[in-house]
Amino acid sequence: MTRDEITAGLAEILEEVAGVNPDDVAEGKSFTDDLDVDSLSMVEVVVAAEEKFGVKIPDNEVQNLKTVGDAVSYIEAQS
Amino acid sequence: MSRTDVVVTGLGATTPLGGDVASTWDAMLAGRSGVSALTQEWAAQLPVRIAGQLAVDPANLLDRVKLRRLDRSEAIALIAAHQAWADAGLADSGLDPERLGVSVGSGIGGAVTLLAQDDILEASGPRRVSPHTVPMLMPNGPAAWVGLELGAQAGVHSVASACATGAEAIALGLDMIRAGRADVVVAGGTEAVIHPLPIAGFASMRAMSTRNDEPERASRPWDKNRDGFVLGEGAGIVVLERAEHAAARGARVYARLAGAGITSDGYDIVQPHPEGAGAIRAIAKAIADAGVAKADITHVNAHATSTPVGDLAEIKALHRALGDHPVLTATKSMSGHLLGAAGALESIATILAIRDSVVPPTINLDDPDDGLDLEVVAGKARQLDIPAALNNSFGFGGHNVALVFTRD
């Protein structure tokens, strides 16, 4: 899966869970500061991403995933 | 010392009869039923397959992402509260948030969320349980959401007294303003438990009508052939305001909330006291608290849920506490029984009856019970001069709440 494909997959999840416009989702964007994803929605994003990409994202990793790009890199490395 | 007067300056509701107060009131005056068949697949196995389902689905009104965080009882409480808030004209009034309180309760709370998340837990494990579960199922959720969205900082309270909840929440709002803790209180009740488990529970108590083939005729308070209540869902919210505060801002006043009476039976967990002792005391306290003459109370919106025992116990209590002059109605014949929202919706019906000098009908009263020896407006609405009116609500647990509203 390419980085663009993972970003597009995350954009779908972010739209479903938090109502984020997919056009706003890019690797440089911060989940909390730019995309307005709060802590409870972030939990939903992580669980949905695990399911969608077939990876495990432990809770202690989530705090390191500040940006969409961080998440893409983590998922890319795991899958 | 003169006591603080409290008036009603805003109304909001979403019910089986309509998506707002105006459409709900129109349906009541027209004598329409909001009860229909439950066509959901899960209903097929139940002994009860009818309910008063919301006329307007909250999914059509609220943002999809927001709805993921709200139990249905919270969503409809918000819808009704925003209607009442707009109706009261308080949005840009400069009201100090520290003088704004909330008192909104639910009889059963977020049971549907609890059950849905339990299904997820069983099927997919704990990690799939929504992080929004707790704020969705907590009993104070509806009040907390209303307080959050309106910015209330004088205290947010969530009363729970089963089917007396909506009325008791309004009574608590009256107390808050009289005690000087708030100038405005957004008060009422909400309920949304049309789900197989609560229905099975009530049905196992033999408390519900099983007139599945005639949904619109199933809720029939005081009729000889009544066979139990019909579950309804909905929310009713009123804006209570210190009278001087309302006058100072030139607010439109619907009615005065003149008094409240709250008692407990101390008798049985579900059966009302056979002589209606607790109800009699609640009505008497409300009348005394309101300082009105019994003769001025020309109308009663009764609790009357269409159960064999409860309907007549209330009639006895009204005789003893009020006399034989008031003209009664049971709007549950049309809306079904909204449990924790019932007292709030029926307070709204009582307030509008006073405003419009009209009593909405009790439908399906085809063959009045022999024990019904008070006058009931049956079938069609009737014009009536109503200087003051009483609204009764009683709940499992032996809760009795009576509210008196007056025109001036």
Notes on the protein architecture:
The complex is a heterodimer of chains A (79) and B (408). With 79 residues, chain A is mainly α. Chain A has a single domain, classed as Non-ribosomal Peptide Synthetase Peptidyl Carrier Protein, Chain A (Orthogonal Bundle), CATH 1.10.1200. Helices cover 58% and strands 0% of the residues of chain A. In chain A, helix 1 packs across helix 2 and helix 1 (3-18) crosses helix 4 (68-78). The model of chain A has no long low-confidence stretch (mean pLDDT 96). Chain B is of the alpha/beta class and 408 residues long. Chain B has two domains: 7-249, Thiolase/Chalcone synthase (Peroxisomal Thiolase, Chain A, domain 1), CATH 3.40.47.10; 260-406, Thiolase/Chalcone synthase (Peroxisomal Thiolase, Chain A, domain 1), CATH 3.40.47. Helix content of chain B is 33%, strand content 20%. In chain B, helix 3 runs parallel beside helix 6. In chain B, the strands form three sheets. In chain B, strands 5-4-6-7-1-8-15-14-9-10-12 form an eleven-stranded mixed β-sheet, with helices on both faces. Chain B has a two-stranded antiparallel sheet with strand order 2-3. In chain B, strands 11-13 form a two-stranded antiparallel ribbon. The interface between A and B is small, with 7 and 10 residues.
- Helix- and strand-based class of chain B? alpha/beta
What composes the largest sheet of chain B?
11 strands, mixed
How many beta strands in the DSSP annotation of chain B?
15
| Shape category of chain B | globular
Q: Taking strands numbered 1, 2, ... along the chain, how are they ordered across the largest sheet of chain B?
A: 5-4-6-7-1-8-15-14-9-10-12
The tally of domains of chain A stands at 1
The count of strands of chain A amounts to: 0
Classify the beta-strand content of chain A into a percent band: under 5%
The largest chain-to-chain contact, stated as pair and per-chain residue counts, equals: A-B, 7 and 10 residues
N-to-C CA distance of chain A:
8 Å
Counting H and I runs of at least 4 residues, what is the number of helices of chain A?
A: 4
Structure class of chain A: mainly alpha
Uncertain residue ranges of chain B:
none
CATH topology call of the largest domain in chain B: Peroxisomal Thiolase, Chain A, domain 1
| Proportion in β-strands of chain B | 15-25%
Supply the CATH class of the largest domain in chain B. Answer: Alpha Beta
Write the element-wise H/E pattern of chain B from the N-terminal end onward. EHEEHHEHHHEHEHEHEHEHEHHEEEEE
Average pLDDT over all residues of chain A: 96
CATH architecture of the largest domain in chain B: 3-Layer(aba) Sandwich
Euclidean distance between termini CA atoms of chain B: 20 Å
- Name the overall outline of chain A: globular
Subcellular location (chain A): Cytoplasm
Keywords (chain A): Cytoplasm, Fatty acid biosynthesis, Fatty acid metabolism, Lipid biosynthesis, Lipid metabolism, Phosphopantetheine, Phosphoprotein
Pathway (chain A): Lipid metabolism; fatty acid biosynthesis
Protein name (chain A): Acyl carrier protein
